[in-house]
Amino acid sequence: MIVYKSTQSPATPAPSGADYALAAVKLPSGAEIVSAVAADGRVSVTYRNGATTSIRIFDGRTGEILREIPVISE
Fold first, then answer.
1. Calpha distance 55→9 (Å, rounded)
2. Are 58 and 45 in contact (CB under 8 A)?
3. pLDDT in tens, the chain (74 residues)
4. The model scores a pTM over 0.85
5. 2 lies in which domain range?
6. Which of 18, 65, 57 lies closest to 35 in space, CA to CA?
7. Helices and strands of the chain, counted as H and E runs
8. What beta strand segments (E) does 1-74 contain?
9. In what helix (H) or strand (E) does residue 45 lie, and over which residues does it extend?
10. Cβ distance 40 to 9 under 8 Å?
């Protein structure tokens, strides 16, 4: 489980899409996180679950899964 929260200084205006309100994201039990990136109002998490690697893209405000992309070998 990843917990991510961003705060902005009141002296600087927040850029569009920079407000993240999600408290947690859901990943399969036993998954190992490879990387996590927050950008453009979304959180992308690359993870391994056994022999499978996938990328989940979450809405930064609601935590809803927007897309899951399997990573496959060529």
1. 31
2. yes
3. 455 554 444 555 555 555 688 888 999 999 999 999 999 999 999 999 999 999 999 999 999 999 999 999 88
4. no
5. 1-74
6. 57
7. 0, 4
8. 32-39, 42-49, 52-59, 65-71
9. strand 42-49
10. no
- How many Cα atoms within 13 Å fall on the side-chain side of residue 21? 5
> How many other CB atoms sit within 10 Å of the CB of residue 47?
21
Give me the sheet containing 52-59, strands edge to edge.
32-39, 42-49, 52-59, 65-71
**């996590």: which residue's tokens?**
36
| Encoded tokens for 17 | 């899409």
Domain count for the chain: 1
Residues β-bridged to residue 54? 47, 70
